[in-house]
Amino acid sequence: MKKWIVLFSIGICLLLANLDMTIVNLALPAFSTEFGASMQQIQLIIVSYLTAAAAFFCLFGKMADSVGRKRVFMFGAVLFMVSSLYLGAWSSTVTEIIVARFVQGAGFAATLGLALVLIANAFPPDQKGFATGVAVTITGVGMALGPPTGGFILQYLGWRWIFLLNVPLGLLSIVLTWIFVSDDAAEARRPLALDVAGVPFYLFALGCLIYVSNMLSTAATATLAAIAVAGLLSAAIFVRRSLRKPAPLINVTLLTSRGYLTVILIRMIFNYTMASFLFVLPLFMQNVLDYSKLKSGMWLLCMTIAVAFIAPLAGKVIDRVGFRIPTLVSMSLLFVSCAAFCVLGPATSSAIFVVGLFCFGVSNGMLTTATINGVTTQVPAKDAGTAIGLFFTLVMVGSMFGVSVAGLVLDRVSHAEVVARLAHAALPLAEPARAALFMAANGSRNIAESGLQNDAPTFAAATQIAHAAYYSALGKLMTGNALLTLVGVGLSIMLLKKQPSRSMSGATHAIEIPER
User: Fold this and answer.
1) Domain range for residue 62?
2) Count of other CB atoms within 10 angstroms of residue 313
3) How far apart are CA 310 and CA 318, in angstroms?
4) In total, how many domains does the chain have?
5) Does the pTM exceed 0.70?
6) Which one in 44, 238, 484, 493 has a CA-CA gap of 20 to 30 Å to 397?
7) Which of 443, 437, 445 is nearest to 419 (CA)?
8) Are residues 174 and 125 in the same domain?
9) Tens digit of pLDDT for each residue in 134-177?
10) How far apart are CA 315 and CA 320, in angstroms?
11) 165 and 219 housed in the same domain
12) How far apart are the first and last CA of the chain?
C-alpha cells in the first residue's frame, strides 16, 4: 500500500508541474491586459521559470547526493507551493510575477529531477518499469488537462486561481511525501561533491545568456556585446574548471559522445520549437482570433490529448524498435506541424490549424520518451544520472531561446510592417492608439483594447493593419522553426546511420532509473 501512496504523492507534483506548462501560457493575454505588460515582460514571465529550472537542475541533483533525495524534493515542493501562493494571493505587478515565477522554476527543478527516482525506488525491481510508465502517463494527463482546466479557470475565476490551485494539492503532496517516502538522509549524508567555486561562473554565464536573448530588441548594441563577451568568458572559465576538477557541477566530457550530443541537439531543437509554439498560440488565439479563454483552451486539446495518448504507447514501440526510428518520425511530424503554421492567415481553414496542433502533440508524446531513453543508452550506466541532469539543463536552455526568439521576431517584424503600412495608408493615429496598434500587431494585446471602436472606419483599418503585420511576422517565425526542424530531421537520420547501441536490443531498452 505504501508504494501506491508514494506514487500518488509524487504524482501530484508531476501533475501540477505539467498543468502549469500549458495553463500559465494560456494566461499570458490576461497578464498583458491587467498589467499593460509589453511583449518583453510577457516573455520574462515564461523565461524566468525556465531560467531557474536550467540554473538549478544539476545543483539540486548534487545536493540530493549529499543531504538526501527526499529532503531536496520536499524543499522543491515547498518552493513551488509558496511561490504559487504568492502569485495567486499577493502579486500586484509584472515584476513581482516574474520574480515569483523564478522561484517557482527553482522548485520545479528540484522536484522534476528527483520525482522519477523516488517513485522507482518505492517499487520492487520487477515493478520499476511499470511505476515509471505510470509517472509518464501522469505527465501526459497533466498536459491534457491543462488547456480545458486553465480555460475554465481563466474564463470564470480569473488568472490568480491557476496558481492558487497548486496550494492545497501541493500541501497534500508535501504531507504524504513526509510521512510515506523513506528518509534516505542517513545513507546519502556525505560531503557535498561539488566544485563550489565553479557554480558562480555557471550562473553568471547563464544570466548573461538570458539577458542578451531577451534584450535584443531594446538594449544598446555595445551593452549587449559587452555582456555577451563577459558571459562567454565566464562560460570558458566554467568549462575549464569542469575539465580539471574531480567533482564539477556539470560533466562536460559527456558531450564528447557523438550519440549523446546528437540526441541532446535534437531535443533542444524540439524544445526550442515547442516553447515557441506554447508562447505564441495563446496570444494568437485570444488577441488575434479573438477566442475566449475557454475556447482557446479547448482548441489546445487537439495537441495535449495526442500527448496523453501517445506518451504511454511510445515506450512500448521503443522497446521493439529502439529510440532512433521514433525520433526520426517525431521530428518529421514536427516539421509537418511547423509547415502547417507557416500558412496560417485570415482565410486559412481551421483544418490546417488542427493538423498542426495534432502533429505537434504526437511528436511531443513520442520524442519525450525517445530522447530520455536515447541519452541513457549513449553513455555508460555509471554516468546515467549525470547525463540526465545535463540533458535537462540544455533542454531548458533550448526552451528559453525558443521564447526569446519568438518574442523578438514577432516584435521586430510586426513593428516594421506596421510602420510601412501606416505610411502607405496615411492613417492618422494619436500616440496612445498608435502604441496599442503596435502591441496588437505583435500579439501582446487585442486590437479591441486600442480605444478606436468609436471610429468604425479607423478601427477597421487599424485592425486590418495589425492582423496583416501579425500574420507576416508569424509566417516568418514559423518558417524559421520549420527550417530548424529540418536540421533536427537531418540529425535524426544521422542517428539511424550510427552503429546500433544497446538500446536497440529489445528488453534492455527499459530506462533504468539511476540511484542518486
Assistant:
1) 1-182
2) 12
3) 12
4) 2
5) yes
6) 493
7) 437
8) yes
9) 777 787 778 778 888 899 999 999 999 999 999 999 999 999 99
10) 9
11) no
12) 24
